[in-house]
Amino acid sequence: MNREIRSWLTDMDGVLVHEGHALPGAAEFIGALRAAGRPFLILTNNSIFTPRDLRARLASAGLDVPEEAIWTSALATDQFLADQVPGGSAYAVGEAGLTTALYEAGYTLTESAPDYVVLGETRTYSFEAITKAVRLIKGGARFICTNPDVTGPSAEGDLPATGAVAAMITAATGRKPYFVGKPNPMMFRSALNRIDAHSESTAMIGDRMDTDIVAGIEAGLQTFLVLTGSTKAHEVERFPFRPSHVVDSIADLVERV
Question: Catalytic: 53?
Answer without folding.
Answer: no
